[in-house]
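Case study: VirB8 protein.
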Amino acid sequence: MGSTKEHLAPPNHDGYSPDKLPLNPFEQAESMYFGVMGTFRKAAFNWRLMAFGLFFLNLVVTGAFAYETTKIKVVPVFFEKDSSGRVELMDIEKNRTPTQRQIEHFLEEFVDKTRSITRDDVENRKKWEKVYTYLQDSAANRMDVYTTNDKTFDRWGKELCSVNIKVVAPVTENTYQVRWREQVFGIDGRLKDSYNMTALFTVDIIPGKTLSEVKGNPYGISIKDFSWRREQ
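Here is what the predicted structure looks like once written out:
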């Protein structure tokens, strides 16, 4: 026979036990509250974890993109006409060294920019802003001396000067002679002076590294040294 406690204990139906007594309304509400809050806390933690993960992923992607942009290489492409007038695609990477004619044309334009004077001071200034981008340090210092001695910038607005290129010819592999004639006019258009000039230019080929350098000087022709004088 069982003990008195066994007879007095409530029957155990459907998993009922004395340790699992029914909760009163307050305890039920409290249990539900903490259950819901626990779910919210867990969800909030997961969202924070995902947010931090996305933040660090964004940092990694941004850093990788910034690194790749530093490796971008400018590859200029040119279109030229052949002897028949047909347009040809020229890739500077495959044709890095300019031809002799291209160097000669560059020097013709350089002489015109530095020696001619127009009525438009704005145009004169634009030409000289380009001039110094073609000069290496030693050549730029020499140009400063020439412009000071010739009072080049003081002549703007007081007289005009036209340049007529006569000859551009190679002397050595990197040195070219240029000969031209200058005519100086007053603002009234009357001829004041006329004379011949000769110059020697030593050039280097330094390909541009930035888009602006490539646009300003596609073939990277740079003047290392030069001298010019009036012919007797």
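For the exam, be able to explain this: The longest strand covers residues 191-205.
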